[in-house]
Design brief:
Shape: globular
Order of helices and strands: HHHHHH
Distance between the termini: 57 Å
Radius of gyration: 20 Å
Number of helices: 6
Length: 191
């Protein structure tokens, strides 16, 4: 796997890249639908918060893949298989969006489990792609290893966020006024 020539003229997206883009379009469509539903139900402020969170996560993953694909579009069986793995991650992420929007609307704990599982699958795919690029293309070895390192660190952070999400609800309840703080402490089992 070697890097593409940045001066290459006439570069077009491969059918695999276009299919991958469609999985991200499904994620955006799911987020937009959930946003519209929440706004229609009168929860515009919460809808904006959930939509921004969803679009941030979608955009980071989409840009990450798009940048890699445009720099290293090796069209062999391994690249295709790992890209398909990433697409599975995007679909799992998309399936978690309704639960996240619902949790924001209800004011309970922030439900990110399915989204983070999808992200873990996507990140495994990107780490594999970067590992292959770093191993097979000496000029980008340092960049590839740095991408692997930072991807793993950030993914570990998201996993910690999911584990801590039930404790974030205290802030949400206090600021939205859904429940009394003493009631929340009882529900969290701290009182």
């Amino acid at each position: 796997m070697t890097g593409r020539d940045p001066e290459e003229h006439g570069r077009t997206a491969s059918p695999l890249e276009l299919l991958s883009d469609l999985t991200f379009v499904v994620a955006v469509g799911t987020a937009a639908f959930q946003f519209a539903e929440m706004v229609a139900e009168g929860h515009a402020g919460q809808a904006v918060i959930a939509f921004v969170l969803a679009m941030f996560a979608i955009s980071i993953a989409w840009i990450s893949f798009g940048w890699f694909a445009s720099a290293f579009a090796t069209d062999d069986w391994l690249y295709r298989a790992v890209t398909m793995l990433q697409m599975i991650g995007v679909v799992v992420f998309s399936l978690g969006l309704p639960a996240m929007f619902h949790s924001v609307r209800e004011g309970g704990h922030l439900e990110l489990r399915a989204m983070v599982i999808g992200y873990v699958v996507m990140r495994i795919a990107m780490v594999l792609q970067w590992w292959r690029a770093a191993r097979q293309s000496p000029p980008v070895h340092a960049v590839g290893m740095a991408n692997i390192r930072w991807t793993l660190i950030v993914q570990a952070g998201w996993i910690v966020v999911v584990m801590l999400a039930p404790f974030v609800t205290v802030i949400g309840y206090e600021t939205t006024g859904h429940r009394h703080p003493q009631q929340m402490l009882k529900e969290l089992g701290t009182q």
